[in-house]
Amino acid sequence: MLVLHTHNSMYPYSSLFFNPKPENNFSMGYQMHQKAGTILRLFREQDGFVSGEKISRSLNVTRTAVWKHISALRDAGYVIEATPSRGYRLVASPDILNIEELASQLHTSSIGRRLVCLSETVTTNADSFRLAEDGAVEGTVVIADAQSSGKGRLGRAWTSPPGVNLYCSVVLRPSIKPYEAPQLTFLSAVAVARAIELITNLKPEIKWPNDVLIQGKKVAGLLNEMSAETDAINFVILGVGVNLNMTFGQFPSDLRHPATSLLLETGQPVGRVRFTATLLNELDRLYTDFRSHGFALVREEWQQRCSANGRHVVVTDCGVEVVSGKYFGIDGDGALLVRRANDKIERILSGDVRVL
Known about the structure:
The chain is an alpha+beta fold. It has helices spanning 23-45, 52-59, 63-75, 99-105, 124-133, 183-199, 262-266, 272-293, 296-305; strands at 2-5, 79-83, 87-92, 114-118, 140-144, 166-172, 205-207, 211-214, 217-228, 233-242, 312-317, 320-330, 336-339, 345-348, 352-355. It has 9 helices and 15 strands.
């Protein structure tokens, strides 16, 4: 699902770890987050203790400054052992979606150039849209622990309780035409499916246009929004919501379709930081390929993962049947293709798909 915006908007904004305005303050804060991320990366690259001297050289700071960074990490919930003559050792990490932890696990070229972590917001898409209008660089990622008004396709509510799931949005500025922007929805769906496979033993499927399913139950949804002129894109916001550790009791009773979480499907809690970093790394790989080779590779993988392959589907709009027939793939624009009983191919641009 892609929503087009042609107007300017202002959105409420509150930051858990820093206030990105003014930019000078943001720059200084971000440098501190980068140093903390470097320390965490050093801990993970070396089993056991890391000497204070090595950390000092890596950060190009004094040993006193190293101690201050270690103290800041402890205040954020990290358990770090310090032993004279041996250095520091990471004992335990909090499962908190913060800049330091994410930065230490990212291996990307564009996604995650700027990270914004929020305790709670209205929607991450709204924050990302506002930041993009203010000139945010491509690859800016906004993540929230909770959303007060999360939304999905067609304005539907997306339940967003704190501490359990992933709610994030990514700012992209692709050099493509506005009519090609829906292709990015398929790209983000593939990235989510890849991340689930890498973190769990589950085999997710994708339902047109933007749902990720496990055993027919929705585990993730995507909502992309765009600002564009007649023939040029200003930016696209990739919105991603993934149910990671929700329990049965946290799902609303009036869901239109069955939903689940990775916790419910595996019986094991999923580390939110690890999942988020994995997703952003996969999204970066796919976006790099997309910019180099276009939609073809993304389309091929999406179709391989589609839940409707070889099956009969019914497409409805506002509860009214539009067309039924055999799933026939998606075209180069991402439109759904359905072969009717008379062999006519119908091209569907919007609607709800039910697989029979």
